[in-house]
Amino acid sequence: MMVIVKILDNGTVSFEGVGQQLFELLHQIKGIVECGDPDVENRLYPDPSGQAEDEEMREDWKSLVQPELQSTFQSARDTVAADLRRATIHSDGSRSFGIPPKHIDQWLGALNQARLALCELHHFTEKEMSRKIEHPQNDRDFILLQMNVYALIQEWLISLIE
Amino acid sequence: MAAIETPEIKNKGKSNLDSGWHVVVHNDPVNLMNYVTLIFQRVFGFNRSRAERHMMEVHKKGRSIVWTGDREKAELYVQQLHTHLLLATLEKAPQL
Fold this sequence. Notes:
The structure holds two protein chains of two kinds. Chain A has helices spanning 20-27, 29-33, 38-44, 55-85, 104-122, 126-129, 139-161; strands spanning 4-7, 13-18, 88-89, 95-99.
């Protein structure tokens, strides 16, 4: 099954011919990030200070900035989930859905959250992430494939807004 | 006539002699190179070539000082970079 990506006249990025497996990978974005894993939380909300002694700033950041970041990240994931809920299911089992232009930033953000979360959850190193995927039926290779699929969609979206 | 003592001035909190604060972006293995370039252009208004230069510095040296100035603005930039999931920190610039 071949996925066709088109830009419609109104700027919507249209995905057609999305197979069930690819659609499921996109559907998983929300759950991957909302797993409650402490490593994922630490990556999404990193230390803002490079000064070891700046404890006051860290406390302020946690109480003032972090809730704002949480809300931004949640909103991006909810937007993606809503766009996927509006997908049309065709008789051959494939799906088509669209990303309206004003949702592109949220998609970029949500895909990034998911890739960062997968990296933390599975402790991938930079070297491992750039290796060739040889056995996608293997769990670890499949996760790498999933990260690459998300990255590919990010690349498409970035090329559209550049 | 009594002499007026020269008042002692103590700096409390932020010093006026601050040499500034660096906004530092650190390397991470996940963020895409063109995504980082795009975010630098958006957050700092860099042109593409400058944004790419900083992105490459992050990639090759592990970190890049992308902005230096007063603390309040530096904090705002770090917040914006965190919104885009870049690893950014605020660091005090060395005194000149």
